[in-house]
Amino acid sequence: MTDSKMHKAGFVNIVGNPNVGKSTLMNQLVGERISIATFKAQTTRHRIMGIVNTDDMQIVFSDTPGVLKPNYKLQESMLAFSEGALQDADVLLYVTDVVENPEKNMDFLEKVRKMQTPVLLLINKIDQSDQQKLGDIVEKWHQLLPNAEILPISAKNKFGVDLLLKRIQELLPESPAYFDKDQLTDKPARFFVSEIIREKILLYYDKEIPYSVEVAVERFKETERSIHINAVIYVERDSQKGIIIGHQGVALKKVSTEARKALEKFFDKPIYLETYVKVDKDWRSSERELNLFGYNPE
């Protein structure tokens, strides 16, 4: 890269209510499966960074937890991640969809409305709507966020994603790169191990179980040929431990097998995965435990 060539770089933060498709969009923009994207609310609990590099540009995307009114300490921490995303964005992507009530979270919207940063309001899942309805939604959002640029998209079908990327590039400030050009994320490998195991738990178990679960990687030993991983699944009650393990260990074995396959795809080498289940009462309400699991936004 020559000095005469302009380089752009910046932080593009993705916010919005739960279940509107933020993680699916992030994965489309970054081109890698960095965020968990399942159909359950509160899937993303951290801010997750994914980095897109070209010769003359670096976009640092940040996917945040869905904005919700906190009921316990974990949710307070998740909201802090989302509100932090308003502070350090060069471009803010506010994601909504064709079914949610635009006035669902007015406190957070008010903060977005006051921002000086460019805001792109993305109406996702337009494949589930028609022209008339979409026109009404656009009008409503235009009244709520008059300074935002509104772009209809379908993250799942990749509709409008290229156009969005082009617009982001235009809005990025001139700046040197913030991270090495070969870096895909700011998160360590262990983080993705726990996220992938948690995703399989979200898919495999019903009701409140997935929200009472946290995963800690106690051993991650990588050699040239393979990776050996020991992971602990923490639950809040003995009854939940029984459900996670299942009759004769069948449920835990299934989750571990599915996680191992996904991890092999992610790391592109053989994985040896051992999982254990431990009870840790009230981890969601203990500041010390939450810090241990990485829920302390700077």
Structure in words:
It is built from 9 helices and 9 strands. It has 298 residues and is of the alpha/beta class. Helix 6 (189-204) crosses helix 8. The protein is globular and about 55 Å long.
Task: Describe the structure concisely for a colleague.
By secondary structure, this protein is of the alpha/beta class. The protein has helices spanning 22-30, 73-87, 106-113, 131-144, 161-171, 189-204, 238-245, 250-267, 287-292; strands at 8-16, 48-54, 57-63, 91-97, 119-124, 149-152, 214-222, 227-235, 271-279.
Key structural traits:
298 residues; alpha/beta; 6-stranded mixed beta sheet; 3-stranded mixed beta sheet; 9 helices; 35% helix
List the uncertain runs.
Answer: 35-46
**Strands, total number:** 9
Rg result = 20 Å
**Broad shape:** globular
Strand content of the residues, in percent? 15-25%
Order of helices and strands: EHEEHEHEHEHHEEHHEH
| Protein structure class | alpha/beta
Q: What is the helix tally?
A: 9
Helical residues, percent = 25-40%
Main pleated-sheet profile: 6 strands, mixed
Strand order of the largest sheet: 2-3-1-4-5-6
Calculate the terminal CA-CA distance, rounded to whole Å. 33 Å
Q: Whole-number average pLDDT?
A: 79
